[in-house]
Amino acid sequence: MDDERISALANPVSVLLDKPSRELTRQDIIQVIKKSAIERITFHYTGLDGKLKEMKIPVLDRRQIDQILAMGERVDGSSLFKGMVDPGLSDLYVVPVYSTAFINPFDPLSLDFVCRYLTKDGEPAPFTMDNILARAASFFRMKSGLEIRALGELEFFLLSRPESELYSAGRQRGYHNSLPFVKNGPVLDEMLRAISMITGAIKYAHSEVGYIDSIASAFEEIDGRRAEQMEIEFLPRPLEETADSLVISRWIIRNIAFRHGQVATFAPKLDEAVAGNGLHFHLELLKDGQSVMTEDDGRLSEPARRLIGGLCRFADSLTAFGNTLASSYLRLVPDHEAPTRVCWSDLNRSALIRVPLGWTNLTDLAGRLNPQQREAPAERAGSRQTVELRSPDGSALIHLVLAGIAAAAGRAFGDSHLDEDPLATAEKLYVSGNIFKNREILSRLPKLPASCAESARLLLKKRSLYEKDGLFPAGVIDYTAGLLQAEDDEGLHEKIMSLPEDKRLEAIRHVMHRDIHRH
Prior knowledge:
Blueprint: H1 12-17, H2 26-35, E1 40-46, E2 52-58, H3 62-71, E3 73-76, H4 77-80, E4 91-96, E5 102-103, E6 110-118, H5 129-144, E7 147-160, H6 185-199, E8 202-212, E9 226-234, E10 237-238, H7 239-259, E11 263-265, E12 279-287, E13 290-291, H8 302-322, H9 328-331, E14 344-346, E15 353-355, H10 365-369, E16 387-389, H11 398-411, H12 422-428, H13 439-444, H14 452-461, H15 464-467, H16 474-485, H17 492-497, H18 501-513
Parallel strand pairs: 1-6, 14-15
Antiparallel strand pairs: 1-2, 3-4, 4-6, 5-6, 7-9, 7-10, 7-11, 7-12, 8-9, 12-13, 12-16, 15-16
């Protein structure tokens, strides 16, 4: 491994072996176990609930560990995928991906791996979320001849018992605050260090706009706690890596918060007047490792506009995977930088899809401010243009929403199954300015669902978009629709708004707080 790759935040496994993670072999892993006095191996895999699961395996001898690394272990699929797998045919293999090896930040005697689910025949299990995503990503590459990468913006609240009333940030005023106005900066630093060493994919972290001095709740776990919203943004990676990194990161964030006597929650909404937890995804398209998002003159390329058109076509049904709680639809309301209509725009946080600044056709911006710097950058960075899907929130089933994005993108490239050319869709749904302040624009834009019940209906109506070409098994569509229907939120907003003020606040807080640890 080059010296340039070694830093205080490098993966200790790679540093120990002086080797990039992607090149790790079974023999390398055994060497790490010997050199680091590892006592156990922990296998991780994502369950149907979207949470990271684990199995601990003691290291007994070389022969045993060689076999475990080569063949994996058995798990009960009917428990991990309850309602989807028949108990009579429930066994699955979980097999480690060597490139994911990391030292457990909470147990330094454990070497951990992300695993994939395989069937009795050694094939990818068709109904598991990791394999659905892998199929969808492969489908996109086959349809487009391009690579798609994604980065997630992981937002969450840290809930703590106030030790001091000094330097209150003020309601809805937490954006990019520093000490002493943000109290949990050191906790965020700890999270950032652990996630960076495991994923190598962190872009930055900061405090977000949401801030509550004291939460009022009927749930003892969170009542009276101070709530500070944080965000960790990742670097673009292949979809499968992005999903694994986000699920691992949620596990790390919860564990570090727990060690500090705090609660970390990714719940879509904690207070009706305070920003919710989004999980925005930025997407970029590459050819031979180079971005194809823009033309030479800086305008969005045809592939980028085709991607946007595909996302717009799938946007309403994608909420089934990206917005899975009743409280999700209390976040998707006007004037909270959360979308309610299907449209896209430049630099516009009221749109469903935003085209942010991308450093297109710019070089060495710091050179303009630092004239003493005479040497040009070692290499031209090139465009970092992305498009940002802003509807998903912290309740998202991460692997499934990314698989849905890959399906939408793949179908946008030459799929006659769509009822309109994606380029025409993109042209029709472009807007400028704040759409919530222009009734004429607002009236012609398609609506996003307003409830889990509506999302379920749309998913079932449009299931062929996902099931065609074998991307999503029918059972996964049925399961997701059932999950949404169980929220029983048809007309919920109207019912809540009709209540007297004190009862309304009680009802809305119950909806927001009852599922703070769902995914």
